[in-house]
């Protein structure tokens, strides 16, 4: 299992998609840092009162940080999907897996090794982007700097990392049953449906339309990725001694806050997907 994990790490590091996404991420952090720096310098408006400046700064600070984390989550999601959807199906299609399984390696060990290797790289990459966005906000944000507590950071970072593990597990489940191309299409569609459903739920909460809220909840049950992101934003920005923190989250925050039960459901979702990947791969005729 650990040998498969090491091989998986080497495979993803040598893939062109990893290099491309890493360069995209570096460019994203550079442009985000430049934008945050100059936006922070221009935030104070002489025509506004002190209270109005504080309210405006608080709102735009959370929005800038939220936008950075949203695109960081998008980049890590792309890497998780593209690196995982072909991890099993591609080796089956190319017949390379026969030389591995002929050594009496249990099939569940092969799947777990793939998850450990892919998951390890994805977690490191996600932690790098999450920390990069926060460091830029703290060092270059100026008036847009957000005061964050250590407990908030730990909860938010845990949820941010959870997303990539869920994506990897679900991608492996599809990769064990169908072709690489079909797996990729399904995963991208699930990701888009989840994001759109999340925005629909937030609009429903703002407009007080229960139909829209229920639609968003259904999409979260189909694929709970957006719920994990919304919960992360709530953990990061919501504070009991800050009465305007809830309103300052904006569209990337959560007016309809996912509860802890939804996060438990997301964890079970990933575990069930991993179980299906192991079962499907064990039963597949190779």
Automatic annotation (TrEMBL):
GO CC term, one of those recorded: plasma membrane
UniProt KW keywords: Membrane, Transmembrane, Transmembrane helix
Ranges annotated as spanning the membrane: 12-34, 67-89, 110-136, 156-174, 181-200, 262-282
Signal peptide: none
GO molecular function: ABC-type transporter activity
Lineage top rank: taxon: Bacteria
Pfam families given in the database record: ABC2_membrane_2
Record-given protein name: ABC-2 family transporter protein
Organism, as annotated: Laceyella tengchongensis
């Amino acid at each position: 299992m650990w040998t498969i994990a090491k091989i998986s790490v080497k495979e993803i590091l040598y893939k062109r998609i990893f290099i491309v996404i890493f360069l995209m991420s570096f460019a994203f952090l550079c442009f985000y840092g430049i934008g945050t720096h100059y936006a922070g310098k221009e935030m104070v408006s002489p025509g506004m009162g002190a209270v109005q400046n504080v309210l405006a700064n608080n709102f735009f600070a959370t929005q800038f940080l939220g936008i950075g984390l949203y695109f960081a989550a998008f980049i890590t999601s792309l890497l998780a999907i593209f690196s995982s959807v072909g991890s099993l199906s591609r080796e089956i299609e190319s017949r390379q897996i026969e030389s591995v399984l002929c050594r009496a390696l249990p099939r569940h060990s092969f799947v777990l090794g793939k998850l450990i290797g892919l998951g390890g790289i994805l977690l490191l990459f996600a932690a790098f982007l999450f920390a990069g966005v926060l460091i830029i906000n703290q060092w270059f944000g100026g008036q847009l700097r957000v005061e964050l507590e250590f407990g908030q950071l730990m909860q938010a970072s845990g949820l941010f990392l959870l997303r990539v593990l869920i994506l990897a597990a679900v991608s492996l489940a599809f990769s064990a049953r169908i072709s690489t191309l079909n797996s990729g299409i399904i995963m991208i569609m699930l990701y888009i449906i989840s994001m759109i459903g999340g925005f629909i739920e937030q609009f429903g909460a703002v407009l007080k339309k229960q139909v829209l809220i229920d639609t968003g909840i259904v999409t979260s049950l189909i694929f709970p990725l957006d719920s994990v992101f919304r919960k992360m934003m709530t953990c990061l920005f919501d504070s009991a001694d800050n009465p305007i923190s809830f309103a300052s989250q904006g569209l990337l925050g959560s007016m309809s806050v996912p509860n802890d039960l939804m996060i438990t459901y997301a964890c079970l979702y990933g575990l069930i997907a991993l179980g299906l990947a192991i079962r499907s791969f064990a039963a597949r005729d190779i």
